[in-house]
Amino acid sequence: MENIIKQMDMTRTFLLMGAEKITEDNADIIPEGFPNSLRWQLGHVLVSFEYIVFHMAGEEVNLPEGYTELFTRGTSPKDWTVDPPKVAELKERLSEQMGRFKETFENRLDEKIEETFKAGPVELHTVGELVLFALFHESEHGGCIKGLHRAIKGAQ
Question: Which domain does 18 fall in, by range?
Fold first, then answer.
């Protein structure tokens, strides 16, 4: 189980390394062929992790007001009617979230969750399984961030 914590730490570290290139100037560019922006990707990872891991494990979701409406699945920056959080705030929250995760779940990965979490054909039953799914999800969005960086760089 220690390896799951280590893997989560590594995945978040790589995500934050990729986020270093995100600035207020490039955060909201949506290149042709992409549904969302770099800012949305960061916010989506933050919000998704809160719901996939903290909420499903029976813990309190720790998000500022309005984040869910901006960054959940199916949302788009094209539809935003309020100013989104600054990139620096999202990066800071992602970093803080990792500390909260370790503190909250370090010895709970084998713990059964009350309600089965369904992701397509997959059913998850423990905190550790939720974390592994969150790792998969975060890695996908890390790839999206890399693709967005390349597309933005190529368009300039």
Answer: 2-155
In this predicted model, what pLDDT tens digit does every residue of 46-68 receive, in sequence order? 999 999 999 999 999 999 999 99
- CA–CA dist 47, 41 (Å, integer): 10
Contact criterion met (CB below 8 Å) for 103 and 76: no
Report d(CA 141, CA 14) in Å as an integer: 11
pLDDT at 49: 98
C-beta of residue 42 within 8 angstroms of C-beta of residue 87: yes
- Cα gap 152→127, rounded to integer Å: 37
Helices 87-105 and 2-19, axial angle in degrees (round to 10):
180
Rounded distance between C-alpha atoms, residue 125 and residue 103, angstroms: 21
Average pLDDT of 1-25? 92
Q: Whole-angstrom Cα distance, residue 32 to residue 29?
A: 10
The CATH number given to whatever domain includes residue 113 is 1.20.120.450
Tally the domains of the chain: 1
CA distance 41 to 37: 6
